[in-house]
Every structure is written in C-alpha cells, then in structure tokens.
Design a protein that fits this description.
It contains 12 helices and 4 strands. By secondary structure, it is mainly alpha-helical. Among the domains are: 79 residues, no CATH class; 122 residues, no CATH class. Strands 1-2 form a two-stranded antiparallel sheet. Helix 2 packs across helix 3.
Amino acid sequence: MSHFLVTPPASRLRLVPQAPMPGESLSSLFDRQAQLWGVSRRDLMYQIASIGGRIAKSDMDVCKGYFLDIYAEKTGINRQNLETHRAEHSYPLMYLKLRDAYCPMCFEEDALAGRTPYFRLDWARIFLSHCQRHSCPLFRWSHVSTDGMRRLPHGWFMGEGPNQRGLPQFRQDLMLAKAYARGVRPKKPNSIEAWNTLIRFEAWLYRLGIGAPKHLAYDDRRSTIERKVMDDTVTLARSETANGRLLTEESKAVSFEDQRVMSFAFRVFKHRGKISRIVREGTPSPVILSSGIQSIACRRAVLYMVARSFGCAED
C-alpha cells in the first residue's frame, strides 16, 4: 500500500489556504497544495488559471503577475505574502525539475513540531549544498514525480511526526546528516579539510549574497565575485575527463570518504547538445550548472575545487 497521496480524476478544486512557511519556495507551497487534493503539479497550475498555469509552470518559483493574483484570491492568502516568497530571477537556481535538495534535520524538526515538512527556496541555490542552520549536507529527496513535484508521505500532512513507513532513504539521510552536524563525520583528515573548506566557502558566498534569488542593491565587489565564481565553476565543470572524473592535478586530488556526500565521478553527467549560457541581469547562468550536473554530490565536489582555487573565504 502506498504511503503517498493518490491522484484522483481531475475535477474542479476548492483550494485550501496553505500559508507559506518561513523561507519556503513557491513551488513547495504549490506542491503541498496539489498533494492535499492528490493531483499533479501540472493539473493544479492549470486549474488555478489556464494561461497563467502555462506561464507559471515554466518556473513556479519565479512566477508573477496575474497568476499569483488569482492564486491569492482563490486561497485567501495575502498577495504580498506570496510575493515575499518569490524568487526574482532563476539564474542562481537549479533547473525547476531538479530542485529536490533537502535537509533531513529540517524535515525532522518540521514533522516533530506538527508541521508538514517543506522545501526552502535556499535549497534550490546552485552555490549552496549544505544546510546553513545545521551545517550538514543537503541530500536529494527521492520521491519526485515526472513533472518535478516532490511528494511527501500522507502522514506528514496529518501531523504524525517524522517516523513514517516507506521512507528508508530519509532515515539514512537523517542519520548521516546528524553525524555531520555533530562533527562525527567525516573522520579522515583530508575529508575533514575538504568538508570544512567547502562549508566555509559556501557560507561566505551566502553572506555576500552571491547567487541569491532575490534582487540586491548593486554592489561592484559582489558583482565581480559572483561573475568570477560562476565562470570558474563553469570552467571546472566543463573539464571532466573521458573517464567521467574532474580534471584535477594529482596534488589536488581528493578521495572523500562519503561518496554520497562528495563525489568526483560524473556518473550521471551528460552533455546535452551545445552548452550555452542564459543571461539574466547581466550575469551568465550556464546550463551545465543548473541542469547538467544532476548529482548534488558531484556539484559539491565542483564547488569544493572552486573554493580551493578561489582561495578566499573571509570578508
């Protein structure tokens, strides 16, 4: 028996007010709403507004205009509240269907508090692969529909707590996340150095607003750093060898002890035609970062190597 909500035949929905939670992405809010009725993400978008639904589903976290007006009207959610959860541009974010990173410890806290666990907008950032709150790795949520909807167990909508049946991967992720948060993992010196370098670098980028999904006041120093980090990351990510590994000097090679956390092998990476750049607000967004490297463990390895080469983790 499935522990997830089943999709019924499409019908006209009466939307239930689901107030967005602190830091929640709009796509997470819409996914929760869709699951309350057991419909797909796509069906929910079209039932809210047919034309607006087509526009919104292209990037639900950046959707604006009358789609949000209609959603606010139908759910009774304050329109301005929705706006505060909206990303203002998508170039710093993973491709919509790949925004499946999550923090197991945050999910556990949500469920223990009787809240339905939800996905934070920050977890979709290209340049963030660890939880700022718990200093643990983000992991991939495995229950994802073909349209990208992240499916949660029915019990979480009922406030039944984190111990749900049918979630062995979540329990494994939670155990490993707690080991990192408590400093039990990693254990090997070179892995400890790599992990500490990575989280210092990502935390530094976060403090500066590098790769933020919200518009920030123009700052020449921040813009210069963001462009350099983006370019360096793209250059390194495009240099995988014929063996599917990062092209690195032997002296910089790292054998990280937890391959689920940091992997230098691009097992799922494939070039999909010519790698192009989509420019938004004057900042390049390489497809190779937002959709090419689908493994968060591989993306984390790329960020670590950039942190090493960048040589800067202090304000």
